[in-house]
Amino acid sequence: MVIGDEAFPLKTYLLKPFAARTLNAKRRIYNYRHLRARRAVECAFGILASKFEIFQRPMRVEPDKAIIITKATVGHHNLIRHRDGNMIDKTSSIVYEIRDNTGRDGLLPLARTGCRAAEDAMKVRGALSEFFSDPSGSVYWQNDLVFRNVSH
């Protein structure tokens, strides 16, 4: 799963928040949990970008190679943290250079999908919305934070 924002199209592999005009209680909880996940990813990516120059510009590689590079840098980052402690030091950044141009601006063409894919994506997001509101998928503090400034 990929966590996106409103600018991205809804896909089965790409989650985005519900539009503000369509929010009910379950969707509001989903949006809150989505935002928390996105913030965690952005924070982690910011740490990686401060240490590894490859993340400071578009990667011009195939998606499978980008995954390998990302996993390698995460592993390297964790190895450094384990060895040196939890200090984040910009002076220990590592420069990688990739010269595998895969298209204009490093973007690869995406296959077109039909309406069925959009329906499937809505089902995935709906199922997560249900799960986050269910006792088995909720966290004890989410309702207090989500509904604290909402008048019923």
From TrEMBL:
Its cofactor is a divalent metal cation. InterPro entries: HARBI1_dom. Keywords: Metal-binding. It holds the Pfam family DDE_Tnp_4. Residues 2-78 form the DDE Tnp4 domain. GO terms for molecular function: metal ion binding. It comes from Plakobranchus ocellatus. This is DDE Tnp4 domain-containing protein.
